[in-house]
Amino acid sequence: MFPHRGVNPYPPARKQRRSREANGRPGGGFSLVEIMVGMAISLISVLIVLQVFKDFEGQKRTTTSGSDAQTSGAVAIYTVERDTRMAGYGFSIPDALGCKINRSFDGEISELSLAPVTVTNGAGGLPDAIRILSSSKGSWSIPARITTDHPPEATNFFLNTTLGMAEGDLLIAYEAGKDCTLLQVTGIPSGNIQVHHQNTSPWNPPGGQNIFPSGGYNVGATLFNLGALTDHAYSLDASSNLLFSDYNSATNASNVQPIIPDIVQLQAQYGFDTRLGAQTDARIDTWSDTLIDADGNGSTTDGSDIKRIYAVRLAIVARSALKEKANSSGTCVTTTSSNAPTWSGGAIDVSRNPSGTANADWQCYRYKTFETVIPLRNLIWRQS
Prior knowledge:
It contains four helices and 19 strands. The chain is an alpha+beta fold. The mean pLDDT is 86.
């Protein structure tokens, strides 16, 4: 007989037993052994992932640090190059280059050489410093000839023209064989063509203090207009920062500030044309860390040598901010003597800090070297 409709032929206990038998194992979850094996596999997986993550992060920091050094070096050399290209702008009398400028601000007398570029060579391979002079005159201005002798005690110049001059402009007086003089325009009166340089300006010394050459300036001497003097300088500080010095002619003071970090070397050389006579055509044939006797007259500091500088060769070395780990023997070999920075001017010393102190960890860093040749276009155009 068949069971009555609706009656379960298999009791629940028997069905549960058949389910366990069908699965091949008893019920009740994971055993302790299974849990421990799973935890061991999980821990091993975590360790592998962490090791991969650690290696990846190290490689990422190295790559990022190298990229930062590349960016810092590229920005640094672009900044210095852009400024250097303007060297000598507004120095409209070629023969005046190299002359000694006598000047006075609030009664304090000082001197300045009219050199578009000055390289201060770091002793023993330490970083150099570079200084750039130019005019900040935004509009045109032409040199003016003195039409009446100007004695040392006079406070006005009679000229053939005052075109382009304005009150507050800085002028340089030049006559061959004499020192130059810096003065400031305090007025341009109507009537006679002249400019006043009275002691109402701090740049014009009071009576009793004279910065003009003995005998003053004679007819035919020249004045050229700077507007304001642009005087920029670049150097490195002890913390490996590129320093920018910006001179303010209104206060006769310079503002020095760090602008780019992790710059460990700055090297610069003058590019001279030492060929004499008709061969002089503004082509570089000699590179030098210092001024040389380019014209062969026995002096290394006269104006004719400065007028033969037509380019500057520049190298900047940036260092990664990340210190790489030493190898298993405890020695850093990221940079060695075989792959240390070099440039066209020779080897570059990165084993010392810019201050000159030894850097025992210099091999633990990566370095990027940037090099360029900067033509002094204002001198080249004047030559042609």
